[in-house]
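The aim of this short unit is practical: by the end, you should be able to scan a pair of folded records and say something sensible about each. We start with the first protein, listed as its amino acid sequence and then its structure tokens.
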Amino acid sequence: MNPDIPQTQAEAPAVLRPATSNANYNIAPDQFERVIAPLPEDQQDVIRWWYFLGKDRSWTLTQLAKASGSSSTTLSRVFRGEYGADLGNLCDALTRARDSFAESVNNPEFIQTSLASQLFAICDRTRNLRTVAFAQGVMGNGKTTALEEYKRRNNHGRTIYYRCEPGLTLVQFISSLASACGVGFKSKQTQLRIREKLYTLLGAGQRLLIIDELHQLFLRREKSDITPIQQCEFLRCLYDKSAAVNSGCGMLLVSTDALDDYLTHAGPALAQLLDRGTIKVILPPKPTPEDARALTRHFGLPVLTADEPDASEILKDILKSSGLRQLTLHLRDGAATAAKQGERYGWHHFVSAFKDLKSLSKRHK
């Protein structure tokens, strides 16, 4: 290569602009994404992984440097675009450190139900296709628990979970969503600037944005209130603009059946959003018998046999009339009864706790 001839963009090694170092971890996620955008995808991926690992765990830059085998000064320069040298060797070292990083993936409180497995598959496909997906189901069947666990397992900035709240204005909705995405902003910053930050962040890194409890946006609204329509339109704009800025993100909308009661007024706006995607799923209303067995095993109960007719009848009734949430609550109540008596949890504790609760309910009628 002739040193007197400037390298073309294709020939030049991937470097970040030189500047002075400032070893802190205050760079905002959207600014960070703009910094690494010119890099090859494999380098973006490993740098992003370490950046968001630290953010997810609220680490200092020193803690992150110790985990990655690098230095806080080096990481600060990389995150700010001030490294000023070829990143090949450094990214190779960060990749090796990532591969050997011992990360706890167990959540002893989580139970892998059939609905959780279905939602995990929907999340994976929505992310990979960068599409809009919609999942709807009855309340209390474990949707939120499964989605929160998916987010925990697919962290490092790859999954953003947002739970809707009732009564928010459009500005409050956008601001709270930005906070959930880790997008910092000052009180005097315009909404347009906050939106641009969201487009930048969600457009990079093949992210998944989960919007849970979508029906909450419509609660206690007057028929003339167009706020839910504006919020749905913003989500549509967010999906479209993130794709225009970069590769775009996947967006999963999740709601209970209560949403059906509000769609007469806001249906067209939501329909335009859903039209961006191909995945529309009605989730099963009741847990399967295997789900029930998984729950009882989780609490250390023995296999239910014909010798426990009362427990069998109670369990059958809960599964028929309620869902996983109620079953879990009753199983926990039985476990508390066993613990209070200093005994190993058995089905008689479950039955006793259930009957006690029923008697308390009757007294207050």
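Turning to the second protein, read its sequence before its tokens, just as you did above.
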Amino acid sequence: MEIDNSLSPLEEFYDKREIELARAALRLGDTSKAEGIWKEILSDAEKDLVQYGDRAVQAATELGNLQVAEFRWLEGANYYRLAAEISPSIPNLTRAGVFLWKIGDYTGAEHFERQVVQIGRSESSADSDELAAALSSLGVTLAALGKFEEAEDLYIEALGIRRSNLPPGAPALMKTVNNYCNTLIALDRLEEAATYCNEALDIRRAQKKENPYSYAVSLIVISVLEKKAGNFSTAESYLREAADIARLDEAYWGPRSPRYAQAIYQLGLLLDQMGNFTEAEALIEDSIDIIQSLNGELSPDLYIRKSSLAKVRAALGSEQEALALATHSFTNLKFLFDDPNHPDVLDAKRNLEQIQSNL
């Protein structure tokens, strides 16, 4: 935690002794004093945003940083949301969108990402990569909300910009290609999806030595296509290769690479569908451990995975344990998403009902 960098600007107007006490506490891992200072500053600044708006934004951002450092994603996202509402600049709007996405508030993320696109259209040229990035990011969020047709329009626009401005193998371009592929898969336009998935896979395979982890991501994406097309063996081979590559990512992340967690989770889902429940259980359990260590207890991804694990355990004959886990997962997802019709909530509900019906 950058203790001095975060608290130093306060020395011009805040009690220096309190600042030093907060710094000393932070060095011991105690954020409460720093949090108290920033909350006081935010409360005072909100009384006169015309004069102290910048100070309020700084306080809200620093409070968000403190929450996120302790995996309190919900509180952190709400402080970032406040900063963006006070000062809707692209950095503030983008940060709010990222962390609202992380807590599963896709509707909130959409709100801020639309503002980023609006600013991009008014302040950037029509062919700027900044606009393309904003369009692509909003497309991902809309796809998560099930708004696939609108997401497709944004991807097509973003791809048009990026194909004009970037070389064929540019990482940003391939990221948009992969995202568009995911949306085409969701729309059941598998032949079109295959064109884009294979484009990204071929380019990233050629770049494997320089960037193996992007190649692993493309393997995961195309595995979803193959799985949906019923080509389970091909999907499995892609996912096992992705997992082997992503496991090396631990050199950077330690034993908790998010790419590795995604690869083994998708492999676990596939093996569940193929009837290999024992290996599926082990892989999903490992992915849960990684996500929990990375994101804490308020991560929607944690309970999405736990719901999947409950389904596998029911298939293995541990019905009561599966029922408890499915109930726990569904309850937490309802709370985190606050939307009974959210796709992940509905999936968890279906898993729970299926387990209940088999008791």
